[in-house]
Amino acid sequence: MKKKILIIDDDMYLLNSIASYLRSEDFQVDIAKNGYSGLQKISSYQPNLIITDIMMPHLDGYDLIKKIRTNKTLHKIPIILLTAKGMTNDRILGYNLGCNAYLTKPFYPQELIAIIKNIFNSIELSNKYINNKSFKELNTNSINDLILNKLTNRECKILSLVAKGYMNKEIANEMKLSLRNVEKYVSRLLQKTGTRNRTELAKLALLTYFNIHKGE
Questions:
Q1: Which residues of the chain have pLDDT under 50?
Q2: Coiled-coil regions in this chain (predicted)?
Q3: DSSP state string for 27-81
């Protein structure tokens, strides 16, 4: 079955160009011209992934992510921010709000495809092992061994929750921390592990863990 992707951008030429390219790569695609109409389409279209601009009328990309990540039905949908805002602070804010990847314009379509496939591969890997008995044993001690003891116990715990698909708000509730503190921990984990986004961070924990426990 084709993966469904929703693209949200107020630049109609770019919007249609990306949609055409993704369709040529065998994805099913729908489009929305601003964050508000995109939010309305998400529930009915039920995309497997969302690509959104940041600077849009009515509802910008940051506020769109906030609404998605606080919605119990939609919060696990992966999101790629595709934007002209390329400053480090913009990227950090995007990741702290819960985007899975951040790509700046102008961009190479092949890179976008690579990011999309990486996200879907990570989801498949996670789904493959999420009910595996050994996966349920993913904990502070095992992850601490995986990342060569570079992380604190609390960072290891947060990493294990990220690997299990928890979003920042869920991690905050689970660990009795403020959302702001969780955002800081996730940013620190990206720096310490050399990963570029939340998807790579989760994939690192999963791949390393199952490499160690291969054959058990």
A1: 133-136, 140, 148, 210-216
A2: none
A3: -EEEEESSHHHHHHHHHHH--SEEEE-SS-SSS-HHHHHHHHHT-TTTTTS-EEE
Q: What's the predicted TM-score (pTM) here?
A: 0.66
C-alpha span between 120 and 111 (Å, rounded): 14
Asked if 148 and 123 sit in the same domain, the reply is no
The domain in which residue 145 lies consists of: 130-212
Q: Is 99 exposed, middle or buried (0-12, 13-18, 19+ CB in 10 A)?
A: buried
Report yes or no: 117 and 25 within 8 Å, Cβ to Cβ: no
Write the pLDDT tens digit of every residue in 122-137.
777 666 655 554 444 5
The pLDDT, as a whole number, for residue 59 is 92
Q: Does one domain contain both 205 and 148?
A: yes
Helices 61-69 and 35-45: angle between axes, nearest 10 degrees: 30
Which residues make beta-bridge pairs with 82? Answer: 103
Distance of CA 23 to the CA centre of its chain: 22
Domain limit, last residue, from 77, 111, 128: 128
**113 & 155 share domain:** no
pLDDT value, residue 142? 52
In this structure, what are the phi and psi dihedrals at residue 108, rounded to the nearest 5 degrees?
-90, 125
